[in-house]
Amino acid sequence: MANSLHSSTSFISNPVNFGHSKIPAQIPGSVSFPSRYLHNFNLNKSDRRVLRVMACSGVEEVQVDVSLSPRVNAVKPSKTVAITDQATALAQAGVSVIRLAAGEPDFDTPVLIAEAGINAIREGFTRYTPNAGTLELRSAICHKLKEENGLSYTPDQILVSNGAKQSILQAVLAVCSPGDEVIIPAPFWVSYPEMARIADATPVILPTRISENFLLDPKVLESKLTEKSRLLILCSPSNPTGSVYPKNLLDEIARIVAKHPRLLVLSDEIYEHIIYAPATHTSFASLPGMWERTLTVNGFSKAFAMTGWRLGYIAGPKHFVAACNKIQSQFTSGASSISQKAGVAALGLGYAGGEVVSKMVKAFRERRDFLVKSFGELEGVKMSEPQGAFYLFIDFSTYYGSEAEGFGKIENSESLCRYLLDKAQVLLH
Ligand SMILES: Cc1ncc(COP(=O)(O)O)c(C=O)c1O
């Protein structure tokens, strides 16, 4: 197969056109093995429309201009909405649905972390914190980055936010000008291109191959970089493929990045601790010459099962972090004081979260092994064994075009997911 993303055996059936290149949509076909919920949102068109409503009195007619900003139009709605709605409707009708779609551990937040949050409330630690986060938490993050990642930062080079998602969006907003290109290897976490669009930047999607474990080929990167290239987003371990970039490949990428003075790198390391030996994690900023141009993002949601606490952070050169800080100061202000206390406790669990985290990683590994083995027994199904995170990105294209009894034709990954929901009450996306 010359290029799995362009061939007819592609793992997706509805390629989306971004400019001139057809790239895979990160849509049905992905399984997350710790998940329960799907994000669900729907956006209106921003064409100019006037809604006529009767005023409360019932006498007057009020006209409301319901047109939206073109920015909203530029953002694509989640492709998982329809199927999630269907699953929710089934669940509401009393059908038990196995949800394998959302990127959320099914473990509860470890007790020591939860107690730190409870204590924060009891002790009245419930006021605004500094915008960038408490010095206590930022110092703990500096310590973690030094010990675990070999990265030296001072607290003024750290910005704590309401989740890593906010950290990434603020970074994109802070460094990209309209028309800049944000380079994103596919398959990607669906939010990256949309964040680029929100910043009026252009997402440039670089294909990867299943045969190369979905890792970015440095030659492809080199061929796509232009003067407009502003930000390369790397995610390792990856959502949705579970690929982990080995150090020698990151070294090669770094050598290419170094030739482009305008190019910065956002290294999303949120799945860092969820990694399966012998794979090991390398922080991009630790590579020669990369500290100055790398924004390292990490958070607490995944490894510490803290999705609802909304806590993430960015580390980078002061100039860039201060810019993100400024955006945050007019946006949400600091993260929750309670969550920040819990974050300190999480980082206090020891190297890579200590035993508490390694227990969860062990469970994820067992689930990965089970699913890889089970799907591996299905004829024609292709996948690359995840080395980290908790997702499987599966090529089911062998089933497309076949008739399923009582369902009809399985046209593509979307209809396959519908079929699985119908027949087995399992939600994939
Ligand atoms: C790759 C990646 N980065 C960042 C995030 C954001 O995590 P949070 O905002 O919960 O910290 C997620 C969540 O799904 C993710 O998968």
Automatic annotation (TrEMBL):
Residues 97-427 form the Aminotransferase class I/classII large domain. Keywords: Aminotransferase, Pyridoxal phosphate, Transferase. CDD domains: AAT_like. SUPFAM superfamilies: PLP-dependent transferases. InterPro entries: Aminotransferase_I/II_large, AspAT/PAT-like, NHTrfase_class1_PyrdxlP-BS, PyrdxlP-dep_Trfase, PyrdxlP-dep_Trfase_major, PyrdxlP-dep_Trfase_small. GO terms for biological process: aromatic amino acid family biosynthetic process, prephenate pathway. Its cofactor is pyridoxal 5'-phosphate. It comes from the Eukaryota. One of its GO terms (molecular function) is glutamate-prephenate aminotransferase activity. Pathway: Amino-acid biosynthesis; L-phenylalanine biosynthesis; L-arogenate from prephenate (L-Glu route): step 1/1; Amino-acid biosynthesis; L-phenylalanine biosynthesis; L-arogenate from prephenate (L-Asp route): step 1/1. It holds the Pfam family Aminotran_1_2. Belongs to the class-I pyridoxal-phosphate-dependent aminotransferase family. This is Bifunctional aspartate aminotransferase and glutamate/aspartate-prephenate aminotransferase.
